[in-house]
Amino acid sequence: MSKELVVLVARKDPFEQEERFQSSLEELQSLTETADGEVCKIITQKRDRVHPATYLGEGKLEEIKEAAEEAEAELVIFNDELSPGQLRNIADRVGVRVIDRSQLILDIFAGRARTKEGKLQVELAQLQYLLPRLSGQGTALSRLGGGIGTRGPGETKLETDRRHIQRRIDDIKKRLDTVVKQREQYRKRRKENRAFQVAIVGYTNAGKSTFFNRVTDSQSFEEDLLFATLDPLTRQMSLPSGFLSLLSDTVGFIQDLPTTLIAAFRSTLEEVTEADFIVHMVDASHPDHMQQEKTVLRLLDELGAGQLPILTVYNKKDLLQEDFIPHSFPSLTVSVHDPIDRKRVLHKIEEVLKEEWYEYDVFVPASEGKRLQQFKAYSMITSIHFYEEKEGYALHGFIHPEHPLKHQIL
């Protein structure tokens, strides 16, 4: 299948740092490639203020039109969220389809969602985005040739009926409420079982799913693409001491995520706030990894998960050209493809926990097999000795200070 040719357009605010502008532009390019587009031209303009009607000035729009004609591009993507009026006016001036960054991200999400919940959330975000933009989309949407920005909910209906969309939005919200309630039940059950939860977070494409799959032997979607994982997965994982925990893989973070999506994926990210421990995966080989790291930490704070114990894992060390200096502690620099490095991560998680947890010594009679199992499952046992004359086990280990089992330790 031939790729769709795309012209990218970005406005640089004079007060915006050059680095931040460039990384946002590179991200737009990666997003376009992830959506099967091929960037044939990038047009930028320094401009103090956005033009309320056309976003950029007349001269620039003329330049975009000429560039699109010359390259035979079928699509122009703006690196900002455009208002319904701006989208309409720009499309009229440049004569090809125009979408913005938000629509592009929504489009990728539509192609990536696997579970019922993921699909519903994407559809909701797309419909909420489209509703105020309907009137100008008529011509573009009736040409159902497909292409970037057109995947997703029933386009043919869009021109015909606003009420239809509003009804669909209400319907999806109801269905999502049910899913969220189910998820809360699962969470409650996990809490009651005192399951220890580790969440992997990080910028999109940092290697989270690769790590998740290798340490839990599961088959979640893994690819060198932005947003390969959309649906949160939780699997059991055993730490080196034998301590069992649950590991959750989460959707990748990104700067300037569309507002409709932040709301839609709140529940996906809420897995993070329920966690007891966070593994923050960073692509150390990315030129802008510091900015990406900050973006994730800021979002964690906004979610209310900023106070959780966190281990930063700088991944892709095999791609590093020079010595790497970590910015966060505790941290490790690894390649998650390397089994020894993955073990190092698991050992480090235990190390960090030992500093936070309560150290205990306890004697469990051999007749109390169930209690022994509980200590093995819910605490980190560092040594275990069987004493024949006492007929029981002396355990030394670490346990979460609030775990109910702690009260059994005298």
TrEMBL record:
PROSITE patterns: G_HFLX. Belongs to the TRAFAC class OBG-HflX-like GTPase superfamily. HflX GTPase family. The keyword Cell cycle does not apply. It is found in: Cytoplasm. InterPro entries: G_HFLX_dom (IPR030394), GTP-bd (IPR006073), GTP-bd_M (IPR032305), GTPase_HflX (IPR016496), GTPase_HflX_N (IPR025121), GTPase_HflX_N_sf (IPR042108), P-loop_NTPase (IPR027417). Its main location: cytoplasm. It comes from Halobacillus trueperi. This is GTPase HflX. Monomer. Associates with the 50S ribosomal subunit. Pfam families: GTP-bdg_M (PF16360), GTP-bdg_N (PF13167), MMR_HSR1 (PF01926).
